[in-house]
Amino acid sequence: MKYESIGSISLPKIGFGTWKIGGGSNANHSLDLQSLAALRSALELGYIHIDTAETYGAGHTEELVGQAIRGSGIKRETFFITSKVKPEHLQYDAVLKSCEGSLRRLGLEYLDLYLIHWPSSGMNLAESFRALNKLVRDGKVLHLGVSNFNLKLLKQSQELAETPLLTDQVPYSIFDRTYAKNGVLEYCQNNNILLTAYSPVGQGHFPVNKTLMSMAEKHKVTPYQIALAWLVIQPRVIAIPMSFDPQHQKENFDAAEIELNSDEIEQLDPMG
Ligand SMILES: NC(=O)c1ccc[n+]([C@@H]2O[C@H](COP(=O)([O-])OP(=O)(O)OC[C@H]3O[C@@H](n4cnc5c(N)ncnc54)[C@H](OP(=O)(O)O)[C@@H]3O)[C@@H](O)[C@H]2O)c1
After folding, report:
1. CB 240 near ligand 1, within 6 Å
2. 113 sits in which H/E element
3. I need a labelling partner for 184 at 20 to 30 A (CA). Which of 16, 167, 192, 200 fits?
């Protein structure tokens, strides 16, 4: 696995997403066996950055992540656990309460990274960051970040955070360049902020074209792996694909090792 380092923090280029594990917007207990099996195989493969959120499965996903971590026998310190506070909970007391809830469901004493999941129209960002900064001071959270924030909001957040803002988690893939076009990617790269690419394999619905196919054949990998390799070859970019399928999980994990040459990158760059 290749890593992206910022100061003393080193994060794997490929982490594991958990949206749909344990349910979507609501808990789906009928998926528990399948969800726990997916989490177990991801941890066995060596994924250590796990991305979750209080909204996933209405909190149930965090419970399953916690269960899988405890069951793995792997030390807490090995993992890098990200969770997120939802836009309806951005008032001072609500942020503190949300974090407590995530910690309780995960069974953890601290989160490695805590993000504002989405901006909300009526939010008071200064108030939210007062609470987030307190969580860091109290040792409940090690690092802060945001998600789905445009450049203006990202810069405001940087000003309000008492510690360096670690990431903006946004949709980014070979076929979705919204956050490259709106300036967030370049800003992150020039300001030591990670861009965490979510939906990095297009939620499993890539329009696989001839270029991706032939490059995949040449490297003896899949087009999805080429798409991931193209993402994480970029400085300051990490990705968090989700998969229930152990084979896909392994392919995604291994994609960071694929060496694309400059000709190949030039062919992939204009694809978005
Ligand atoms: N911050 C936010 O607002 C936000 C929004 C969306 C997502 N996220 C985070 O980002 C994570 C990833 O995004 P996502 O789940 O939306 O989309 P994604 O990772 O791009 O796609 C997941 C889908 O792609 C399939 N897939 C994964 N790897 C594959 C492979 N190698 N070959 C073929 N199919 C593959 C999976 O099916 P199988 O299970 O069959 O492999 C699954 O249906 C989420 O789980 C979540 O943690 C954050």
Report:
1. yes
2. strand 111-116
3. 16
Q: How much is the pLDDT for 14?
A: 98
Taking CA atoms only, the protein residue closest to ligand 1 atom 34 is: 204
> How does DSSP classify residue 118?
S
Q: Ligand 1: does its nearest atom lie under 6 Å from the Cβ of 251? A: yes
Which two three-digit tokens encode residue 2? 């290749």
State residue 143 phi and psi, 5-degree precision: -140, 155
Residue 138: Cβ-neighbour burial (10 angstroms; 0-12, 13-18, 19+): exposed
- Is 37 close to ligand 1, i.e. is its CB under 6 Å away? no
The pTM of the whole model exceeds 0.90: yes
**pLDDT value of residue 115:** 98
- Taking the CA of residue 228 as reference, the ligand 1 atom at the shortest distance is 31
Model pLDDT, residue 251: 98
Ligand 1, pocket-test mutation among 34, 51, 201, most atoms within 8 A of CB: 201
In whole angstroms, how large is the CA radius of gyration of the chain? 18
Largest CA distance in the chain: 54
Cα gap 115→135, rounded to integer Å: 12
- The rounded average pLDDT for each run of 10 residues, N- to C-terminus, in the chain (272 residues) is 94 98 96 97 98 98 98 97 98 98 98 98 96 98 98 98 98 96 98 98 89 96 97 98 98 97 94 84
Q: Using an 8 Å Cβ cutoff, are 32 and 40 in contact?
A: no
92 given a catalytic annotation? no
Taking the centre of ligand 1 as the mean of its atom positions, its distance from the CA of residue 81, in whole angstroms, is 17
